[in-house]
């Protein structure tokens, strides 16, 4: 099986000239010369980037998905290749109804007719990992209309084969590509594999869906389907059936009376809320996964689907990003440069003035322009080129955020080309920064830590006593001994002051 798959990949690579595209980065030039001599009859009329996209489409869904993910890594790829890979679509034919019904019976130990009152054997959506059918639960289970997501059979074996081959090719790239060791293509493949294996567990996707729904409880601008946990397994996920218009159908949205500029502003708010408030965001927000509600109760609200890929950010990541976004909006490029160095992402010996000038050259041209005149793709590309020049490390936890931001750009262009992203996002970020770093943030943080301090407070008198009773350090230099004694007294005094302050604050909050 693996040898047959390898032969297939080699055949496609030769047909589209991928060997030349790889070997031309080898410093000696011998490998590309040998390839051209061996395959002397080949003549290519299409650009290399187009040939790469066509080859990935020929190799099947796993390679298509890898190309989609790789298209977001503009730090690794030339602009023409990244733009071409971004055109890849998950056009995967559905698997048969018989296989779908067999997978349901395998998951539940009983046939679909015993699990669902109605089950539509014709899928409504099909992708590389799974496909979706509509169904209805029995009256005893609520009688709800549901969407049933079924994992493609034997996907784990297919993934293992293709990812193993991708890792082999990535290792070859590291050897023949001049930038291979610095850009670590094998690490990129490993990151891709992690996300794919996560998608193979539909219980994980159900948990992602449930978390996002909880984060947006009561929201008027975003709906997340409810998960029916009693019917979820690692290979089958059952959730509330959502009804709406695909966001790509702008004519239908206008006919339904949807306010497109308001919808685009709500999309920006949803993105920044997920990133900065929750640190947990939908990382696959392409138009196929976004609908718009038309029912009177939630008219004009977003409906999110497909939660196989989510991104997470730590408090450090969120703070770093918020500082950078705000600095960008205020055109404070020195603050941007300093934030990179303070976060440890740029070397400590970086010339701040040079880094500031380089960032200004990238960002200044995009201000005061509507979204239709701005390409985040080009801005990100130039930022990555600047990062490479100043040896800035690309943070893997932000790769999904970059991908999501590019998706937001596409949706924004489609809905309202005149959207001013900067003016829309700036008040939200300023409010968030005030809540996190202002007095409100201080009080909230104090309340979160109060239970820990309550456990520590009874120990403080003993710690202060130990500090006062600590024997003096015998030092041959009287001056140093005196300084050490003074320092101990100051530490003890600070301990007493801290004890009093904590006690006063706790009394103020709880009483």
UniProtKB/TrEMBL annotation:
Signal peptide residues on this chain, from the entry's feature table: none
Membrane topology: Single-pass membrane protein
Binding locations of ATP: 124-132, 149
Family annotation (InterPro entries): ABC1_dom (IPR004147), Kinase-like_dom_sf (IPR011009), UbiB (IPR010232), UbiB_bact (IPR045308), UbiB_kinase (IPR050154)
Molecular function GO terms recorded: ATP binding; protein kinase activity
Active-site residue list: 284
Pfam hit, one: ABC1
Major location category of this protein: membrane
Class of the enzyme per the UniProt entry, highest EC level: transferase
Keywords, in A-Z order: ATP-binding, Cell inner membrane, Cell membrane, Kinase, Membrane, Nucleotide-binding, Transferase, Transmembrane, Transmembrane helix, Ubiquinone, Ubiquinone biosynthesis
Cell compartment(s), UniProt: Cell membrane
Enzyme Commission (EC) number: 2.7.-.-
GO cellular component: plasma membrane
Domain ABC1 atypical kinase-like: 87-337
TM spans (from-to): 492-510
SUPFAM superfamilies associated with the record: Protein kinase-like (PK-like) (SSF56112)
Record keyword Hydrolase present: no
Swiss-Prot/TrEMBL GO biological process terms: regulation of ubiquinone biosynthetic process; ubiquinone biosynthetic process
Pathway info: Cofactor biosynthesis; ubiquinone biosynthesis [regulation]
HAMAP family in the cross-refs: UbiB (MF_00414)
Family per record: Belongs to the ABC1 family. UbiB subfamily. Belongs to the protein kinase superfamily. ADCK protein kinase family.
Function description: Is probably a protein kinase regulator of UbiI activity which is involved in aerobic coenzyme Q (ubiquinone) biosynthesis.
This protein's name: Probable protein kinase UbiB
């Amino acid at each position: 099986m693996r040898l047959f798959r390898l032969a297939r990949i080699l055949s496609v690579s030769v047909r589209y000239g991928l060997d030349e595209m790889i070997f031309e980065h080898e410093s000696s030039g011998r490998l590309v010369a040998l390839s051209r001599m061996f395959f002397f009859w080949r003549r290519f009329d299409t650009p290399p980037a187009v040939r790469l996209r066509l080859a990935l489409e020929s190799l099947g869904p796993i390679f298509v998905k890898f190309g989609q993910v790789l298209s977001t890594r503009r730090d690794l790829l030339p602009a023409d290749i990244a733009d071409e890979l971004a055109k890849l679509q998950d056009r995967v034919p559905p698997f048969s109804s018989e296989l779908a019904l067999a997978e349901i019976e395998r998951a539940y130990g009983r046939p679909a007719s015993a699990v669902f009152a109605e089950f539509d054997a014709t899928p409504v959506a099909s992708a590389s990992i799974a496909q979706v059918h509509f169904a209805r639960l029995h009256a005893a289970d609520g009688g709800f209309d549901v969407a049933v997501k079924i994992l493609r059979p034997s996907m784990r074996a297919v993934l293992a084969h293709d990812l193993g081959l991708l890792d082999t090719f990535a290792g070859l790239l590291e050897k023949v590509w001049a930038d291979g060791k610095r850009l670590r293509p094998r690490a990129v493949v490993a990151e891709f594999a992690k996300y794919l294996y996560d998608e193979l567990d539909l219980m994980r996707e159900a948990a992602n869906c449930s978390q996002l729904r909880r984060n947006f409880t009561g929201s008027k601008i975003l709906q997340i389907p409810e998960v029916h946990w009693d019917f979820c397994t690692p290979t089958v996920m059952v959730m509330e059936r959502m009804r709406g218009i695909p966001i790509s159908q702008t004519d239908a949205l206008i006919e339904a009376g949807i306010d497109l500029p308001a919808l685009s502003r709500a999309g920006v708010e949803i993105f920044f809320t997920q990133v900065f408030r929750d640190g947990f965001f939908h990382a696959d927000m392409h138009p196929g996964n976004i609908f718009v509600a038309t029912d009177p109760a939630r008219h004009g609200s977003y409906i999110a689907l497909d939660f196989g890929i989510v991104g997470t950010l730590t408090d450090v990541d969120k703070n770093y990003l918020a500082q950078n976004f705000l600095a960008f909006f205020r055109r404070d490029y020195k603050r941007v440069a300093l934030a990179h160095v303070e976060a440890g992402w740029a070397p400590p010996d970086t010339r701040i003035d040079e880094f500031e000038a380089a960032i200004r050259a990238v960002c200044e041209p995009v201000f005061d322009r509507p979204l239709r005149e701005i390409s985040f793709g080009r801005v990100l590309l130039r930022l990555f080129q600047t990062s490479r020049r100043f040896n800035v490390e690309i943070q893997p936890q932000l790769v999904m955020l970059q991908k999501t931001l590019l998706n937001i750009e596409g949706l924004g262009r489609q809905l309202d080309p005149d959207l001013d992203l900067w003016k829309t996002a700036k008040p939200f970020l300023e409010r968030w920064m005030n809540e996190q770093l202002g007095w409100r943030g201080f009080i909230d943080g104090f309340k979160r830590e109060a239970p820990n301090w309550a456990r520590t407070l009874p120990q403080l008198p003993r710690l202060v006593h130990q500090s006062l009773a600590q024997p003096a350090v015998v030092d041959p230099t009287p001056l140093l001994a005196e300084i050490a004694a003074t320092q101990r007294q100051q530490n003890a005094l600070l301990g007493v002051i801290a004890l009093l302050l904590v006690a006063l604050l706790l009394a103020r909050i709880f009483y």
